[in-house]
Design a protein that fits this description.
Elements lengths: L2 H14 L15 E2 L10 E10 L5 E9 L3 E8 L5 E4 L10 E8 L5 E4 L4 E9 L4 E4 L4 E10 L2 E4 L4 E2 L3 E4 L21 E3 L4 E2 L4 E3 L3 E2 L4 E2 L4 E2 L2 E2 L4 E4 L4 E5 L8 H5 L2
Parallel strand pairs: 4-6, 5-7, 6-8, 7-9, 8-10, 9-11, 10-12, 10-13, 11-14, 12-15, 13-16, 14-17, 15-18, 16-19, 17-20, 18-21
Antiparallel strand pairs: 1-5, 2-3, 3-4, 21-22
Length: 258
């Protein structure tokens, strides 16, 4: 099997392992394909001014593309080839907004997928080639920033993220002084299991993994794998603070019926 085909096989297998049966990934089911920028999205294009400077030093206009279901997509740069965004539209309008910003800077073969019911803001900075990101259904995020350098990120269904969540993969190399050996090459994908509640200003670094039905405390920095479900994780670096817990979107008052 060709190396690229093998990588895609492994990627889909990992993603499908945490997604429900009805939402299994298939490589050909693309809704948004930014290979041809003019045919970016089947929707109404809305022009919006943006302060980013172009190559000539002058400000430029970046289009915002609107889809049914209160979905908005903005592409800042697409200097590579074969970069793709797959968006599954919700079965019915839930009234919430979904904003996606993608910056494919000098990267090729990047793939982003969001399943139905996602809401909030998702900013993707895809440097280098072959970044992969899958976000499960019904995820609600105030704002998440993804900074990827050839990495894979998988977020399961029904996750809830407060303000300023960051997934920051290494953009520079760390080497051994004596041998020159690379020390920080990513060894595994970033995975956030389904039904995880993430507090404000949480950062995930390369190789970080969280099992499902868990809570991540505010301002935590998650740097390693946590394989046990139903845990409260907090701190910098993050560690397990409590086991055998779960959470519910309802407020304590509504949950208790008081």
């Amino acid at each position: 099997m060709h190396l690229k085909s093998f990588f895609m096989f492994v990627f889909y297998k990992m993603a499908n392992s945490i997604l429900p049966e009805k939402m299994k990934l298939s490589e050909g089911s693309l809704y948004v394909n930014i290979i041809n920028h003019e045919d970016l999205i089947r929707g109404e294009a809305v022009q919006e001014e943006n302060n980013e400077k172009g190559k000539n030093g002058a400000g430029k206009t970046v289009p915002v593309w609107k889809l049914p279901g209160n979905i908005h997509v903005k592409i800042y740069r697409n200097t590579g080839r074969n970069n793709r965004i797959l968006i599954y539209l919700p079965e019915k309008n839930n009234g919430r907004e979904l904003y996606i910003k993608a910056d494919f800077f000098n990267g090729e073969g990047n793939f982003i997928c969001l399943y139905p019911g996602c809401s909030g803001r998702y900013d993707f900075y895809c440097h280098e080639n072959g970044n992969r990101c899958v976000i499960g259904s019904n995820c609600d995020a105030v704002d998440i920033l993804f900074s990827m350098f050839g990495n894979t990120v998988i977020i399961g269904d029904d996750c809830l993220a407060a303000k300023h969540m960051r997934i920051l993969c290494d953009g520079h190399s760390v080497t051994d002084c004596k041998t020159g050996r690379l020390l920080n090459y990513p060894s595994s994908p970033v995975i956030i299991g389904p039904h995880t509640w993430i507090g404000e200003r949480v950062t995930f670094t390369k190789n970080a993994q969280i099992a499902g039905d868990s809570i991540i405390g505010a301002a935590s920095v998650v740097t390693k794998k946590f394989t046990v479900r139903n845990t409260l994780i907090a701190g910098s670096p993050a560690s397990v603070r409590k086991k055998d817990i779960n959470w519910d979107k309802r407020t304590p008052q509504k949950y208790s019926g008081s």
